[in-house]
Every structure is written in C-alpha cells, then in structure tokens.
Design brief:
mainly beta; 5-stranded mixed β-sheet; 2 helices
Length: about 140
Amino acid sequence: MNVSGLLKSSLGAKRTYNINENIKINDKDTSVRGKAVLMRTNRGILVRADLDTEVELECSRCLGPFRTCLQLHFEDEFFPVINVTTGAALALPDEPGVFTIDAQHTLDLTEAVRQYVLVAAPMKPLCREDCAGLCPVCGRNLNQ
C-alpha cells in the first residue's frame, strides 16, 4: 500500500484497506483476507489488522500435510526510512525487528503477517483430533 498521502496527513488520520492477497510463507502459498486500519502517528503509521489466513501445516502425529484457518489480530507500528516531504533519510528506532515503510513510501504487510502466522500456528498441529499417527514399528500412517 502506498502511504505517502497518509504520511503527509495530520496525526490521527486513518485509512482502511480491505485485503485479499496470496503471499508466500515458508515457500507455500497462503491466502490472506481481512481488513487493516492504518493511522498516522508521530513516528510513522500504526497498523491494526484483523485477518483470516489459510495455511498449510504438517501434522505432528502422522506427518501428513493439511490446511487450516488461522485468525490474526495484530497492532504494529511501521516506520518510514525516508521523510515524505524532504526525501531525507530517517533514523529508525533502536528497537530490534521494527517494520519499515520503504523509500517509495510502500507499506508491505507480508513480513508482519508471516511473523504473526508463525506465532498463531499451533505448536503441535493435528490434521484431525483423532489422528492415529504413525506405526512405531513400520512407520506406516495408521490413518490409512
């Protein structure tokens, strides 16, 4: 999203974007749908996002791939690297892992979504609640 107009706006100005994209997470296509509200802050742009994603995971019992839906709700601030009016480089906060708005004033949610998907994914994903797993002797998938 090009946010140059929002960066020129007064503090508290908001824009709402509907999101319907496919992005790559861990080399797999992931659909992302939802809404993001962007608000101008004194340092950059605050993003409040409510997104639904469908990701491919590996079952922790049978090791088979399966798709599942995750709901993401996050709020993060993005910082410009270039001043929108002067073109001068801006210093980023000393915080590690801050999200940035590139030199063309484009705010890309891909990395934020990727990180929040990794956090939202279950630690031990199951393809189904009654997954039988693998045979301890021969390694065959006991669901088949």
